[in-house]
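Need the bound structure for 1,6-di-O-phosphono-alpha-D-glucopyranose, inputs here:
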Amino acid sequence: AGAEMDSETLKKYSALHPKPPGLTLQYGTAGFRTKAEQLDHVMFRMGLLAILRSKAVASTIGIMVTASHNPEEDNGVKLVDPLGEMLHPSWEEYATQLANAEEQELQETVTDICEKAAVNQHKDASVFIGRDTRPSSEKLSRSVIDGISVLGGQYHDYGLVTTPQLHYMVCCQNTQGQYGKATLEGYYEKLSKAFMELIKKSPGSGESQRHLKIDCANGIGALKLSEMQPYLPQELLIHLYNDGTKEKLNYLCGADFVKVHQKPPRGLDMKPNERCCSFDGDADRIVYYYKDETGHFHLIDGDKIATLISIFLKELLAKVGQTIKMAVVQTAYANGSSTRYLEETLKVPVHCVKTGVKHLHHKAQEFDVGVYFEANGHGTVLFSKAAETKIRQLAKEEKDDEKREAAKVLENMINLINQTVGDAISDMLVIEAILALKGLSVQQWDAIYTDLPNRLLKVQVTDRQVIDTTDAERRAVTPPGLQEKIDALVKKYKLSRAFVRPSGTEDVVRIYAEADTQENTDALAHEVSLAVYHLAGGRGEPPQP
Ligand code: G16
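Answer from helper R.:
Posting the output first, comments after.
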């Protein structure tokens, strides 16, 4: 049985990870995230929290030390729930309480959480740990281990892994291996096997090789892709760039950089029409792109990934002839053209939720097949238990050849997709398989619909929490007058839309705008950023056009 908490030991260990007095951190879009040097106490305390959570749900819990797309100097922590989901929202409050308790209140806070969350302290506890390649991550993950040890929990340290790999491990462990083997080898084998089964059926398979250039953001993706390379079939040749040996993590490269700046990453030379993609710092996001013959850059973001996957799955579901209902979940950042295409042309219901994978994941669970993607390239597909069982059964027993074959393809898609969370490696293989099976070039994929010109900007304000939003973040409720101002600005342009929201991972306010031309979009985005600067307490120089 798990050890009871010894308050003297807690005090002693906590003193080794002291909280800077007065420092308050908010649980953000994906856990705590800030400058690495402010996080030692948070990591220790999240080690404590993971044990409490593990005892409360009698399952293994995951902790990932990463700040994903943020600059190298930052760090952060993501907590993983039993089936690989993000930490349940009801526990975010406990996480915040624990992270912000002053040294002398720590013991009391732990006891308080145990009471509120009905934690049975006598239960066993187990935690899986992973970390990204940031220089600060190793030390911070040792602080996590200190927290775990104080409360007498078991742990397994996976060391350097991608965030989605850790989610996968946790899910494997808690499903007693049903989801897969909880090892890196198990992960590589599961995905590569499903991928091979899929592309076997593609036209010209065995003869042609597919080349893909990958910008690894100078992060963990490079390490894990090179480990995976020997498992991949010869049909897919991956070429790794920005592998972290020379340059800084996420600096002028990576999925976030490419999406926000709508230009290629540094360090990857692109020939016309070559298919390229970028991972982010912890390999849970992916975007594709190419350059045409005129040198024009084309971004294929999360919305186009969701569309490609939806088209493919819809065709297969029609073939198997079952009433399996599919829906797509997006956020306010989704390009207006993507939503229109999905609803009007593909005739798939679309739902809009707040930013953050936790919100998309939750909504997607309502459907037989829920495709969710953020425009920034973070997403996956969820299959309900019932849909999965039905598909696996049809793949085995269906007499009609065409139906059975379609069910088999769906079954392999289920095996290839990381259903626990968005996963750049898994998403990449899903996309490569679909393109191969449908015989689509990157240009043809891009041409499914035309994006409305769009722009993402950031503005710094003294306190970003003065902005409160509603309607899945599409309208600002405070500060007074801001939404009215945005409405008036949006009216000046055609096909226009704009919204603002405080980031949950960086100390900025994010601005999104789209309109009929890039010029108008940029003008609108700039005007909205000035409105934020003036009405929401702008810091530093006013935004420049
Ligand atoms: C995290 C979340 C994503 C979110 C992104 C930006 O991504 O997991 O869901 O879209 O932050 O969030 P915000 O606009 O609130 O800063 P990552 O890849 O950095 O973990």
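Comments: The chain has four domains: 7-160, 186-298, 302-423, 454-535. The mean pLDDT is 96.
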